[in-house]
Structure formats: structure tokens, C-alpha cells
Amino acid sequence: MIKFSSDLQKKLEGSFLVLATVNNENKPHVIAMTCYKVLTENIILLCDTYLQETLINIKHNSRVSLLFVSKDKTGYEFSGQAKYLEAGEEVELCKELKGQKGLICKGALIVEVDRVVISGNKK
Q1: Which DSSP letter does residue 45 get?
Q2: Per CATH, is 6-120 categorized as 2.60.120.10?
Q3: DSSP code for 22
């Protein structure tokens, strides 16, 4: 199992993530995510505010990738399986997250990360 170090979790705080999916014709779709939280050492919670195309793609293929670049210009790609939730404590948590102000939370996307690729400035 992949485990996010506490250092990596700190680097993620305040950054934005790019979420990548593919549709049923294997065409990519990417979207910037600012409302998210690391729940465990390998689970990231993403809040659904505008994920219409993303959710269609996940129904076709639940495999996703997330990308972020840290302040030291190190790139991190997280890949894993996504699962969408319309109710429950994860959705309630999304409603509380500070990046959610003024936006309607429709649900939560849980990504269980099973692969991390690090590139760039590997300090």
C-alpha cells in the first residue's frame, strides 16, 4: 500500500490538484481541484462542485490520476481508483472545507491511491 508521508501531506496543503480522467473514447479530461483533503495515508477526498464530465468518465473508467507541483518544483502524480459518494460523512466534510465557500457541494470523490510518481526537483 502507498503511504503519504507527513512531509508530502504538508506540501499538498494549500496547493491545487489537477484531476485527470478519460472518457469512453479514451479522450482525456482534466480539471483543477482546490477543495480536497488527505483523509488517510493513501486516500484523498475531492469535493464535487463542478464534476459533471469527470463523473461521466469515472462511470466508464474509475481509474484516475492526480497531479500537483510543490513549491520546490517537484511534481507528484498520484494514480488510483475513484469512487463517488452522494451522501455520508465524507460529503458532510466537503461541505465544511474552507475552499468550498459559496459553492454547492454535490458529493464527494474518494481516490484510493496505489501509485505515486515523483519527477523534477527531487530534494
Answers
A1: E
A2: no
A3: E
Condensed to tens digits (0 to 9), the pLDDT of residues 4-55 reads 888 888 888 778 899 999 999 999 999 999 889 999 989 999 999 889 999 9
Answer whether 38's CB lies under 8 Å from 72's CB: no
Q: Where are the domains of the chain?
A: 6-120
Euclidean distance between CA atoms 101 and 82, whole angstroms: 24
Instruction: Kindly give the residue spans of alpha helices, DSSP state H, lying in 15-61.
Output: 52-60
What single letter denotes the amino acid at residue 35? Answer: C
What is the length of the chain?
123
Other Cβ atoms within 10 Å of 46 Cβ, number:
26
**Neighbour tally for 118: CB within 10 Å:** 12
Chain-centre distance for alpha carbon 14: 13
